[in-house]
Amino acid sequence: MKIRNLFLNPFLDFKERSLFLVGIVGFLLSSYLVYLSGEQFNGFMHFYHPEEAVSLLAVLKVHLYMVLAPFILFYVMGIILNNKTRIIDVLNVMLIAPFPLYLMLLLSKLINQDKFTNEIDKALKNGDHTLSSIDKGQMILFGVFGILALFLLFYQFYLLVKGMNVAVNNKKIWISILFVALYFMLDLGIQFYF
Amino acid sequence: MKKIPVNCPCCDAKLKVAKLICDSCDTEVVGKFTLPLLMQLTIEEQEFVLNFLKYSGSLKEMANQMGKSYPTVRNILDDLIHKLNSLANEN
Predict the structure, then answer these.
(1) For residue range B69-82, what is the model confidence (pLDDT) as tens digits?
(2) How many CB atoms lie within 10 A of CB A55?
(3) Chain A within 8 Å of B82 (Cβ-Cβ)?
(4) Calpha distance A13→A113 (Å, rounded)
(5) Strands (E), chain B
(6) Cα(A35)–Cα(A53) distance, rounded to whole angstroms?
(7) Minimal Cα–Cα distance from A17 to chain B, Å?
(8) Domains in chain A: how many in total?
(9) Is the ipTM of this complex over 0.85?
(10) In B, residues 15-74, which contact A (CB 8 Å cutoff)?
(11) pTM of the prediction?
């Protein structure tokens, strides 16, 4: 039962201390991965490649904002919905929900997505609109990666909703939709600052 | 021992007690008696209430025993309080 809930709803069975520990480890590892790949966080769901190299501390700082900003918003919302909402439960959701994003980043680095994107870009600039110069096997691989990335993005929101529903004891669908909408809006707004 | 049904198997309405029998002299008392509030809960809910008493109301201890997270147990308790309030109002 616990193994099933590990993926379906880890917030249901696992102790807050375990979730927090795993969340912190994921936070640090993903920051290090972003730093190694020379990228920087830009919103909660994407990264960009800055022209100048960024330090690990700078990555950690921006990543911290990406966790703290939704945490503050969702904690305030949680308190409005249920005054028994605890800080640790909302914080754990904000730490655990981006795990699929971290996995997506790791996979994109493993299959060297940047190189593939550059090849596509070069082919289009050379007038190869049918992309005949690109290897078909590679096209299929990135097509599969694209589908997987979409699934992981959906899974990130799934974890966000499931976690917040447990944290505030919500059973109403419209509030779950509101969680997703708020996360999207905050992500959109925060991109202008980072 | 058989579990006492709380809701009607046909229409799901709340059941009442109509007959009580003395085990020692077979005296029968017939009437229409409402089940006590706790008896109107499901078996799982009654077990939760018993565990709540057993662990002196410590939700943390209950969460450990049930293998659930603290907010999950607290949410079950909140839902139970809400249900008991609704049942009390109905009665």
Answers:
(1) 999 999 999 999 99
(2) 9
(3) no
(4) 36
(5) 17-21, 28-33
(6) 9
(7) 10
(8) 1
(9) no
(10) 63, 67-72, 74
(11) 0.85
